[in-house]
Automatic annotation (TrEMBL):
Pfam families: Zip. Its main location: membrane. The chain crosses the membrane at residues 6-22, 31-48, 60-81, 93-112, 124-145, 157-178, 184-203, 215-233. Keywords: Membrane, Transmembrane, Transmembrane helix. This is Membrane protein. It is a multi-pass membrane protein. It is found in: Membrane. The keyword Lipid biosynthesis does not apply. InterPro entries: ZIP (IPR003689).
Length: 242
């Protein structure tokens, strides 16, 4: 299935780039900001409209909030890995087992709504793919650029990468067993996750609160890409869910 292949490739590509260019922290930061602009636009233009035009739309706000809270809990395990809180001097503070569990749950939940997406290259899927690249970049840098570390990882790096790459496909597989009517609820939870991650990346303060024109430009590029895709994507009539 093309969706599964794309999900796995997005992780492998990001890890490969992180392994070879992982010391370029500015590149990782720029990728994150670009993906955040893309992700928050997908969230507001695609995910939330689909959620709130469903029959259960008026009661789904609590599930969006649940998604935000869930991501905050997961970040206790990943130490903010998803939005770039990764610094070489504090690598030893990130327990690989906790990181693996946190990233797996995060990606697994994102994969569940994919089971009921009508279009293979849906905006939701593209949002996940765009989001996977910078996270995988940081993951690759973290796992494969630890030459100065005295301790070895308790688990092979390739296992962590494989679990992360397979998490969303496994979530999609599980989603096939859920009632399609539950789709808006899962989308609401993921929408909360997307909203939290992207807003933290975009709105976290710059040094001395100076204007970062590069950051603003990258957000605009990410938003523009998502808007272009939104214009060319077929949307169902209002009042109907996928």
């Amino acid at each position: 299935m093309i969706t599964v292949v794309l999900l796995i490739l997005s992780v492998i590509t990001g890890v490969f780039l992180g392994k070879h260019f992982g010391k370029k922290e500015k590149l990782a930061k720029n990728l994150l900001v670009l993906s955040a602009g893309f992700l928050i636009t997908i969230c507001l233009n695609e995910v939330f409209p689909q959620v709130y035009t469903s029959e259960a739309g008026s009661s789904l706000g609590i599930f969006v909030i649940a998604g935000v809270l869930l991501q905050m809990i997961l970040e206790a395990l990943t130490k903010g890995f998803e939005h770039g809180h990764f610094h070489h001097h504090s690598e030893h503070n990130i327990l690989p087992v906790a990181l693996m569990v946190g990233l797996f749950i995060h990606a697994f939940i994102e994969g569940i709504p994919l089971a009921n997406e009508e279009h293979q290259l849906s905006p939701y899927l593209l949002g996940i793919l765009f989001h996977n690249l910078p996270i995988s970049f940081i993951l690759g840098a973290f796992l494969f650029n630890r030459k100065n570390e005295s301790k070895t990882l308790p688990y092979p790096s390739i296992l962590i990468v494989a679990l992360f790459a397979l998490a969303s496909p496994m979530g999609m597989l599980l989603g096939n067993y859920f009632n399609p009517n539950l789709q808006p609820y899962f989308l609401a939870i993921v929408g909360g996750i997307f909203l939290h991650i992207s807003s933290v990346i975009i709105f976290e303060s710059n040094k001395n609160h100076n204007i970062d024109w590069m950051k603003i430009g990258l957000v605009i590029v990410g938003v523009s890409l998502a808007l272009i895709m939104h214009l060319f994507h077929h949307h169902p009539a209002a009042g109907h869910s996928h």
